[in-house]
Amino acid sequence: MSRELVVRAQEGDHDAFARLATSSIGRLNAVARLILRDTALAEDAVQDALVEAWRNLRALRDPDRFDAWLNRLLVRACQDAWRRRSRRALVELPLKADNDVPIGDAESRIAAADELERGLRRLTLDQRAVVVLAMYLELPLAEVAATTGVPVGTVKSRLNRSISALRASVEADSRQPISSEHPA
What we know:
The protein is elongated and about 60 Å long. It has helices at residues 3-10, 14-36, 39-56, 66-84, 103-122, 125-136, 141-148, 152-174. Residues 87-93 and 95-99 have low confidence and may be disordered. Helix 3 crosses helix 4 (66-84) and helix 5 crosses helix 8. Helices cover 71% and strands 0% of the residues. It is mainly alpha-helical. The longest helix is centred in the first third of the chain and has 23 residues, at 14-36. It has two domains: 1-84, Rna Polymerase Sigma Factor, Chain: A, CATH 1.10.1740.10; 99-176, Arc Repressor Mutant, subunit A, CATH 1.10.10.10.
């Protein structure tokens, strides 16, 4: 982020904030979708985080920490959206056609993505947040801790448990179901 844009936005420059939001929106949407696993909830959380950022931008003491601060606002907005969500029976499978990939490769990538999706859905919101921040955004654990508002030891614990749960989920899904037929 450009420090100058942040400072101008803190002084009330709407155009500067719009440029900051525009340059961050793709990353914010991706992170929120990974954490919430729901496109509509993710879009709401991003919008809430950006509104909160505009309202409280003057409270940001260090303009160089804008991205980390915005990540923290987004994680909180995701947690709020998750708490107030209504139960919906909506399943989305975002598939992207790739004509250059042989069918077998595409099928195996889709299967792997589906396994990962099912594993992520089994994690708690806090576990998903830590996984996304640490693995997707590749933030250092100290920054993940600051963003989520928990100690570094808790981040390490959540990350370890999350990865173990993901592995167990993938392994369980890959096992063949045992036939329930009984001999007569």
